[in-house]
Amino acid sequence: MARMNMVQALNSAMDVMLERDPRVVILGEDVGFFGGVFRATEGLQRKYGEQRVLDTPIAEGGIIATAIGMGANGLKPVAEIQFADYIYPGFDQVVSELARLRYRSAGEFPAPVTIRTPCGGGIRGGQTHSQSPEALFAHVCGIKVVMPSNPYDAKGLLISAIEGEDPVLFFEPKRIYNGPFDGDPHKPAVPWSAHPQGEVPEGHFTVPLGQAQVVRPGSAVSVLTYGTMVHVAEAAVKLAGVDAEIVDVRTMAPLDVDTLCRSVCKTGRCIVVHEATRFGGYGAELVATVQEQCFWNLEAPILRVAGWDTPYPHAFEWEYFPGPRRIAAALKQVLEAT
């Protein structure tokens, strides 16, 4: 075991798979010589060479299209899109080609493509470096969608994604890449610590895709969330002083309905938290699923706490985020409802 932050854990996962499987190839903008804008691929090109870790032009559609061709012809490509905001030029390649390749070819062509991309705000990146588009891809049949909240899960889930035979969109919340963000003057009045470092095995291990995890047991209310918001929810629960159960979704598609519903049926109350815009966000799917499966166990309406329904507000990003106070207010509201 070693102490790692999320960037180090992701780097370790790719290092393990490059060494373990000669079919694994890393490609993307600045992933080679530069080691990635967040240094997630640092040192990998020096270790494995330019044929295994490839720098590409600034062309997201080309990156994804190349990865699809690699996967269909026997390789295991791991493509990096430098920011999730940049993925839209390649959106058609993901939706119309990658997601459908295995089905439309009756299994003749596999699609073992992993697309890594940093998502979310918290680094003062503005509108084009801070988006959380996970709901767009969770809607597409044929793609697995993942967002880890800690280094252990980040490494184990990424190895599972690379080893699989299906396409995976692997979203990485950059706000907790390297450490708790504590230098912004606009952060919430009630501070929170993400505790982003953790004990991570140095070698090969996996965390199965499609399994949520209860990160904090409780009996009064269930908080369903993922990514950075897992840590913010933990701070909110402490602030509110309630016996809440926090469930980290981890894999948005396929969704672990059993774990979520087991929690909600136990507590009878539920709130959903995510950083992305509220309207049409992934939380709506969680609410619908819980309502359908747990209706007779619910003792109060399900509430959502999410980002504002606006373009990403550069100057007000810490107000835009669901913070401990907003989540604590929702916990109080759902617990007082009858």
Shape: globular
- Strand arrangement within the widest β-sheet reads 3-2-4-5-7-6-12
Number of domains: 2
Structural class by secondary-structure content: alpha/beta
Please state roughly what percent of the residues sit in beta strands, choosing from under 5%, 5-15%, 15-25%, 25-35%, 35-45% or over 45%. Answer: 15-25%
- CATH architectural type of the largest domain: 3-Layer(aba) Sandwich
Helix content: 25-40%
Largest sheet: 7 strands, mixed
Rounded to an integer, what's the Rg over CA atoms?
A: 19 Å
Taking pLDDT < 50 over at least 5 consecutive residues as the criterion, the unreliable ranges are: 181-186, 188-194
Order of helices and strands: EHEHEHEHHEHEHEEEEHEEHEHEHH
CATH homologous superfamily title of the largest domain:
Thiamin diphosphate (ThDP)-binding fold, Pyr/PP domains
Distance between the termini: 47 Å
Q: What is the fold named in CATH at topology level of the largest domain?
A: Rossmann fold
| Overall residue-averaged pLDDT value | 93
Topology, number of strands: 14
What's the tally of helices? 12
CATH class of the largest domain: Alpha Beta
Question: Which key features would you list for this structure?
Answer:
338 residues, Rossmann fold, 5-stranded mixed β-sheet, 12 helices, 14 strands, 34% helix
